[in-house]
Design a protein that fits this description.
Elements: H1 3-37, H2 43-70, H3 91-96, H4 106-127, H5 134-156, H6 161-165, H7 173-191, H8 212-231, H9 240-272, H10 277-292, H11 300-323, H12 332-350, H13 356-384, H14 391-396, H15 398-403
Membrane topology: Multi-pass membrane protein
Keywords: Ammonia transport, Membrane, Transmembrane, Transmembrane helix, Transport
Main location: membrane
Length: 416
Amino acid sequence: MSELPELSYALDTFYFLICGVLVMWMAAGFSMLEAGLVRSKNTAEILTKNIALFAIACTMYLLVGYYLMYSSDAGGFLPSLGALIGSENGVEAVLAGGDDAPYYSMRSDFFFQVVFVATAMSIVSGAVAERMKLWAFLAFAVVMTGFIYPVSGYWTWGGGWLSEVGYSDYAGSGIVHLAGAAAALAGVIVLGPRKGKYGKNGSIYAIPGANLPLATLGTFILWMGWFGFNGGSELKMSDVSSANNVAQVFVNTNAAAAGGVIAALILAKLWFRKADLTMSLNGALAGLVAITADPLSPSALGAALIGAVGGLLVVLAIVTLDKLKLDDPVGAISVHGVVGIWGVLAVPLTNSGASFGPQIIGILGIFVWVFVASLIVWLILKAVMGIRVTEEEEYEGVDLTECGLEAYPEFGASKS
């Protein structure tokens, strides 16, 4: 009989790890999406940001972030200080059975959580693209992934005060996506818009990305990786109930993304008289963000409708932020912030165990903490080392000034 719990433990651990790999693959999706939506002269630098932030996130979360998030007292506000990720589960604990018996490896839990941290940081890179200094961004990544994100993560998934008040966020519409968007918004405010983006009398000038096929590939990679993001958050699949839940989560995740694309595409056609590809891509991501707070409770049709609302909101938000002169080259704040809020608020619509009060408290708690903490860090970095390249460097492109190479050297003469 001892073989059965060991087999179940192995299966759940393996599932956790595979879902973590899928979420790690989202790093490639963000890289391709952002590389496609910036100009060719800034491509190598945005790719450098993405691979470097992933490495920094993994290291900082290993050193301090995971301990801060999961080693503190229940219901608290301030996390306990500490380092590293602790010891692994012993065979005796697994075989002991009972409600407190571990059913997956601690190392698999760390691996799954660390790729979520990298996802939150990836949201920031696209919003500040084309005009931020590389090393200032990487310095912020150290603080964001090691300290800022783990604190609000402790409040929620770590059993802190937001968890105690009843905040519900299955896979992180607020915990991951709104947090990343709040940090990005603070950075965009301090950084300012790209040169030539906004003119006099409220005029707005489009700055098209260099490679829309690449951006589309990135979106499909993110869509695929999201099955691990949401599916892995069930945390178990070795029994009938959990396996059925995982299947429902996969179906709902896919339905919401599809709903987001269709809604964004239709609204863009009605509003702009064109089928805007970039709005369709952001519509897919908006649908995915919207369903992330609860991909289990809705029916498949309900998930599609939740995603569709996200698709409509993202188009409205992108246009509105432009009117406010908040320059976000990839629409990250709209996708992950505005739609992240919608996703959290949508939970009580289909989940009887959630209510609007705790959801609103959670939104405010996460946003205020991450935004204010990030704003302070951005301002310190601006004072100490500067966060924006010079106007001449921005014109030449940050590939050459920050990385000393070009992603497309054969087109180097064209500064599109």
